[in-house]
Design a protein that fits this description.
This protein is an alpha/beta fold and 280 residues long. It is built from nine helices and eleven strands. Its EC number is 3.1.3.5.
């Protein structure tokens, strides 16, 4: 098996070393693991791509590259430069230092890397390690991901739904903030929402008198609704969330169509205009 890995914490991040070990175990002794990761940390960049400026890419070692771009850039660089159009069997992104559950998934460069792979028609999984008081006391805060990551990836490859649609499924995995021995198992979970937890800004004035703004986050250990990712994580479970890049609010389409007059009215107006009648 050929696996392409990336992350958003950067080429030297400890979570990438954890992901490398997971990928090598899944790929097997005859497989290949290729790394294309950001040269510098790219946390919070989401699915951005460096559309208006070029990025430098450098070979750091055998099958290991650093690119001055986002995780989505790194996936593109891996597919069309490093692998010269060769298709990996799987793309893994992570292991992120910190959770990418609930609303964090929308900002996450880790999820953005997996999303780009899915848009390229490839199976993809984003993996993140939720942190908390229990992981702070561990020698290895990535212990849960390190011990259970291979089993999660193998389970998804063997048993999870994978489709070939235009906006194909990819998976967002979050390991709970507990020691590996305390992980209770895996749970399929919807993306949650932390009520009253928002990103904001905090102003600071530099010694030169210039004003700077730091982005601030909200509490990470507020539970989300039952059956969603953060709730599962805080209960000691690995959350697995199926995702798509399609941003359409499908539940609102019928109501919107009715509010706008329905397709019949739209089709009638279009036919009248096409026939030469001036619209009122």
């Amino acid at each position: 098996m050929r696996i392409l890995i990336t992350n958003d914490d950067g080429i030297n991040a400890p979570g990438l070393e954890v992901l490398t070990a997971i990928a090598e175990a899944v790929a097997g002794p005859d497989g290949e693991v290729w790394t294309v990761a950001p040269a510098f940390e790219q946390s919070g960049v989401g699915h951005c791509i460096s559309y208006t400026h070029p990025m430098m890419i450098a070979r750091m070692g055998p099958r290991r590259y650093a690119a001055e771009g986002s995780p989505a850039d790194c996936v593109l660089a891996g597919l069309y430069d490093v692998l010269q159009g060769g298709r990996p069997d799987l793309v893994l992104s992570g292991v992120n230092r910190g959770n990418n559950a609930a609303e964090n998934a929308l900002y996450s460069g880790t999820v953005g890397g997996a999303l780009e792979a899915a848009l390229q028609g490839l199976p993809a999984i984003a993996l993140s390690q939720f942190l908390g008081p229990e992981t702070d006391d561990l020698d290895d805060p990535f212990e849960a991901a390190r011990v259970h990551g291979e089993a999660v990836v193998r389970a998804l490859l063997a048993r999870a739904p994978w489709d070939g649609g235009d906006y194909r499924i990819f998976y967002n995995v979050n390991f709970p903030p507990v020691a590996a021995r305390n992980v209770k198992g895996m749970k399929a979970a919807a993306q949650g929402y932390r009520t009253d937890t928002f990103f904001g800004v905090e102003p600071h004035v530099s010694p030169s008198g210039r004003k700077f703004l730091w982005i601030t986050g909200g509490p990470q250990h507020l539970p989300t609704a039952p059956g969603t990712d953060v709730a599962a994580n805080l209960d000691g479970y690995i959350s697995v969330t199926p995702m798509r890049a399609d941003l359409t609010a499908h539940d609102a389409l019928a109501r919107l169509d009715e509010a706008l007059g329905g397709t019949a009215a739209t089709d009638k107006a279009a036919g009248s205009t096409a026939a030469g009648d001036a619209p009122e």
